[in-house]
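debug: dumping io for the single-chain case to check the tokenizer round-trip. Nothing else runs in this session.
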Amino acid sequence: MKSFYFPVLLLLAASACLSLHAQEADSLAVRQADSLRHAFGRQQMAPTNTISTKYADTLDTGNPGVKVVLYDNGTYRYVRDLSQMASDSVFTEFWDTRNVNPYRSDPDPLPEKFSIWIVDSLGAYSCPNQVKPRSQFGYRHGRRHQGIDLPLSTGTPVSAAFDGKVRISDYVSGYGNLVVIRHANGLETFYGHLSKRNVESGDWVSAGDIIGLGGSTGRSTGPHLHFETRYRGAAFDPAWLIDFETGTLRHRLLTIRSWYFNANQRYVQNVDDEDEIFRTDEEDRLLAEEQAKKEAAARAAAEAAAVKYHTIRSGDTLGALARKYHTTVNRLCQLNGIKSTTILRVGKRLRVN
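debug: decoded output
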């Protein structure tokens, strides 16, 4: 299976700018990279069914961190070298094979907005169970439901959604037989109520690998797969990632906002929301500037509409006008650029507020 080479596209984009001034070229490269990143990230992705095919050989590439895997069916795939991935901090820090949430002692709050690659040029995806969800993310019977329930029959194979390393494979109260997989982007996926677990803690798995069989173990009212997505221990609606009815991955790049982790925040498809999610930082800055200009213009218009004027009549004095409009002579002088001794001319307009 051929992979999309994002870094190569960036190099091609940068080479087109060699004739420009260095600073302008850098700025253009950043804009092009951002555009490519978000264009690629917006793409949906169907399950990669060939990944679980038996492989025939592994070949080296020019990059020591990347290998080529050849499969028996004639396809191939670029993958990360597990020997190098194993030493990555993602798979060493907060690594606990028993505790469902090992991040409870982490004092660092999550940013208001951040992006993670769900599937890049070296990743793959497989829908754990393509079906209409039975129970959604959010509160259920007064209890927080941290994931989505996907109906299935006992014994139905359950596949890993993405490449990763098994952190937990154990019987956990409530979840029953549970498998938790941590992925290179820091995301963790949970597979609960299994009747059988086919993997052990520490195993490396690829998207599409069968990690267990569906069941109804733990606190369950019938056979189904309880599927969760968490980032640094915080759960968010898996529907932000996957359309379970079609089995497609909604986006390869997911921009997460802090309010996703609110238990009441379920995924609701909205074109405007999608555009907001994928706005670049530069687009956010430009939109903020435009909004500030609109607000300043609106304030100026409101202030102009609220300004009152008085047309001078015979017998008017600054003192009388100050009393009439509940202000002071000094304020009238400031507003109109006059002195208290200025002679008021009949017919002239005087600003009074």
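debug: round-trip ok. Residues 307-353 form a domain with the Membrane-bound Lytic Murein Transglycosylase D; Chain A fold (CATH 3.10.350.10).
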